[in-house]
Amino acid sequence: MASLADVYKDKERTNWLKACLAIGIAKSGLKHLADNEAQNFHRLIYSRVGSTCNSCSTKNLMHHKPCPRKSCDKVCQEIIKEHRYNSLFWKNTSAQLWQTNYWEIAKCYFPPDGYAATSSIRDTDFNGVISFMLNCRRFDSSLSFRITTGKPTNPTSVCLLYKAREIGKAVRHSSVYKVTDVELLDYFTTLSNLLNDSCYLIGDSDAQKAVKKLEKLKKDTLLLTTEEMMCFLDAVDATLKKRLKDVVDTSLNELRENTALCIDEIEDYIDTCKLELEKEEELHKQDFDKNADKRTKDYNELTVSLRKDFDENADKRTQEYDELTVTRKKDFDENAEKLTQEYDELTVTRKKDFDENADKRTLAFDEKVDKCTQDYDKLTVTCKNNFDENADKRTQDYDELTVIRKKDFDENAEKLTQEYYELTVTSKKDFDENADKRTLAFDEKVDKCTQDYDKLTVTCKNNFDENADKRTQDYDELTVIRKKDFDEKAEKLTHEYYELTVTSKQDFKENAEKRKKDFDENAEKRMRKINEQCGNTSFTETSYKKSCEEIQTWLIKQYRAMCVVPVSMLDPDIDVPLERIYVPPSIKALKRGQDVIHGGIEMDKSSTMESDVNCYKELLHRDGNPVNTIYIQGDPGCGKTTFSTKLVLDWCNAHSENDASTKKKRTVTTRGKASNRTGFSDLDTLRDYKFLFFVSLRDYSGTMCNVSQMVVEAIQSNKLPWDDSVWEHKCIVLTDAADEWYHPDLSYPPPRDYTCRCGKDQSMPLYLQRNNITNIITARPWKLANRRMSDSLTCMFQISGVANYETLARNVINVLAEKNGISQKATQSKCNDFFEKLKNNNMRKLMTIPAICVQLVHQFYVGRLMEDSLCSIYINMLDMHIAKGLHKLQIEDFDTETICVKEIKHIFETGKNEYMSANGSLIRSACALAFKTLTDSSKESSLVFAKNTITNHMTETQLGYLLQTGIITQKKSLALSPQKNIPYMFVHKTIQEFLASMHIAINQTGIEDIMSAIQSAYCDGKSILDIGQLFIFTCGMCAPVAERMSKHMMDVITSDMESKLLSISDHQKMNLFSTPNFAQRILLGGFIERLANKQPCLQLTLTHIALDDLRIPTKEIDALNTLIDMNISNITSMDAQLYYNSQQKSNRVQEIISQSRESLSYLRLRHIGLSDLQLDLQGLKLKSLSCSRGLKLNILSCTGGTVLSNLDCTYMRSCCILSPTPLSEMCILQLMSITGKNITRLQLMDVKSIDLLCAALPSLTSLHTLIISETNLAVTLLYYLPESIRKVVYRASDVSAQDVKSMVEWSKSRDACVRFELLDCRLPANESDTCNWMKQQDGIDITQCEFKDYDILRRSILKDRYRISISWSTILSK
């Protein structure tokens, strides 16, 4: 606590502070009255006006442009009517916000300037509140006195409100910041009297609290908390700053006047100085002429004297140099002769050693051959003795085998002996040639050095004769240096030759040993095979082949028996072969190193997808090589299991004996037969695989973790012979439902008979990794979220429903019509009618999900397909399921409870639901089960669950009823062995989500428990998007919970973005906006579903927005604008894509920035246009900024950019600026150098102002990662980087070998470990040995070093250049 008396010792200045505080207290006392009156006035206006409008701007109203709905004109008239003087100031208010913010109307009565940014009474000062009360007639009835009109002439007739406003002015505009005791007492009296007004304020609790505070302040007994004192000081600070600005402006004007006077005086002084200097110049010129003659005479005499001394010294130096030259030449001849003799002796010695070693190796090799031959003879005798004990057939086979093996062995032994002898002769010959060549090269080098030395001697002598004493001294020093260099060079060449000789000898020795080792291994391998053939009499090649054929035949028979599926879950009695209704799925290959985020709704994945996959070869091969591991991910019901089943069936057809007839049948297109194949018809690809093993991982969940053991157990359980040699054939191991598998919970210590080699990663089972085995794993996206494609033999694919849902719909209608005996013409008519109904976009989205597509087609076929909303479609679907169950059991009702639908009556009125209404208890139980399992903390059991989970929410009788309806099914799979515990699941995840939403709507009294379960299940950035479909259904049924769910989604996303920003990650691409963009699509889907179900207006929370007219459907734009208007002052992140010169869109962006200055922390701007986009970022505390222009469109000219003003980098941690305009680049780099100390990640592209960037980098003291793209001369930046840097990335830039060397040396000079990456940079073709140079460097760990040529289109532009990608990290010494 603190008292104002402690602030200043000056009594009158303390009085001024008390007056400031008294004004703030008085404002808090008037707040309740002013705020209530503003709200009442707002309600009154719109009750009179009726219609609403949020499209008119204040500017339009000021220029008398009529409102299209006539409502804004009426509001304007009501405001003017209540103004005391009928002269309003419209600059402070925004007409677009009149409907949503009542304080915008109150601002019409404020003073003309300074209140545009205020949005509530909380951020409005005392002068604004008093002006509102003085100017608005509505306060006449709330005050006991008559409010003063105009400027009063008699001070005694002034009202208390007017006096209070004058007090505020006097305090704010005081030049000395002092108030006398008398004035302060008058202030307290006036404000207290105002707050004690007998009409309204005497009974207002806020006003009376303010009166008590004023009394304590008057007596100096008011104690302020630290927070109150800080708020008070902020207000005083604002007042002082405004006063200081006035003083500064006055001082500047005076300074300008004085500066002008000083400049005039300086110019006069300069003119005077010029005249005096001209006079001095004339005097000095005369003196110089007098001295010039004397200096010339003295110089001539000195020249004669120096010439005489030089001639005398030249003769002496020439004689000394001749003597020195003779001595040096003599020493050199002696050294050259000595080195030549040593080299000859060394050559003779090395050759002698080599001949001795060659003879020794040849002798050892001959002995080894003799020994192997003897061993073979002994083995042959032994095998023959053993073989005589067998039957006649064995004797004959063995004789043939012995002859073949002996012949092969003799041929191999002779061949290897010949190869070894040739290698010995070749190596010896090469060595002799190299020795002669090296001797000759050395002699030539000596002669060349001698000639160079002679030439140098002659040149130096000639130059010496032409120079003076200094040249003589330099020559002496140069002679010493040249001699030293020559001696060192001669010694170095001798040393290099010696090392080369040693290396050649060592290479020959290692090569000989390697050849010998290879020969020994081949010999042992041959012997081992012969031994195996002779010793194993129980398993022959014939029996092994028969066993493989038996396993393959059984697999084909087993698979074909199970490849039959029901056409529709609404009528499971119609079972047809899979090919009758099958339509190839939409499968796309994911780009390497990227993920796709899913949230239960349609999303644009084009940025992370490669081309479509239409055949098995594209699926099973990459760049012509078989793939070892294939991941196929997809949402529930998108066709993963069906595709797996079709793959199994096609493999069976590929290996069938009657394959030709099978192919012929598949080409028939008449009704009742399979339609023409449009994809995955290359059975020849599957024919290359001998075996296909299908494993349903859900059958082994919690019991087994080795996939190969699962296959072996399944084969052996069917009493088939098994040998591990089966794995040597080309195999496909297809494992389905990896997301429903979890690792066995082993006790510690684990059982002795159980071997687990999974290690730390137990998220996936253990697969057999061989080049001839292809493992295919299907799972939902969350299971594969953290999987990375570590090598080129691993691929990941995304399956997203059928490629052509119209074909699937026709196939289903054909099968249903065939059952009912309908003609082909009538069937075609039904197909046309169905596609006409699909104009509803909600249904089009569902049609891409195969399971739901089939159900919708069946609804239409029986005449029950609804069109108005998703909720009504699913109500109708569930009602058909219950009707089907009742029909099968031949009963009228499952139960008699009919109260189920009362809580959501508005939903049930939209569809046909007589059976659901009559079976309330069963529906309640199904809803409770759906909600409980969907919000289960374990994802493995959220969609597929055991029987005991179901019986916690319903009786076994009810479970039996739901199984008959088909709402719950037992998920049987294409298993090789009988399933032990068949799990349960809802017929589709969307039906489970709809029932969970019904549970929420039915149990609104337990909303806290419901929200607690939802918040626990969807608690982070990875899981929050899974809430999508549940949220959309809830918007149509239960508005209060939907509003809280939207708030939770935004809070989680905010937390996730903050977490990503604070964590210093090694990932190059940090996309903060992917999750928020998908979340916006979810909220828009929910808002539209609310409209379709005629729900009351939803106050959804949307604080993360994306503005992109090209990606947002037209019908969603109005919904998005409405949601933005609801949350415009609380926007946390904005991702805006602006196209060309859309002034309306840029104004909208600026409006959002202005309204959300206190909350906007994440901003991404992508501008594609021909003119600059001007944005004012005043007051924003951005944590992340991304700005780019002209990206991702084929535009011939895109010169416009984003010009940002008033940018503050103080709170920023991530900044990404791509292709900025020169002005923006300059401004941003200058601001970074001042306020960018907290930036940890900086990404720049196409930077032109290298000097500015170099100047800014040292100020970024927290910088961790720097990414530079398409920027040359970037190597100069390295020496400006701060000590905090840990990662540097250069992309698509021109570099030279010298640049790379500089980068390596720089990274090694750092005290901390630094990672450096050059990605797709351009290097001159004649410098391609850079990788070899790097591999020879110590202190760095190279993780990538690739040189690639450019494609044909770019090769013509980038001639003589390679595309280089190098990555390395420094290794710190201990």
TrEMBL record:
Q: Which residues form a coiled coil?
A: none
Question: What is the name listed in the Swiss-Prot or TrEMBL entry for this protein?
Answer: NACHT domain-containing protein
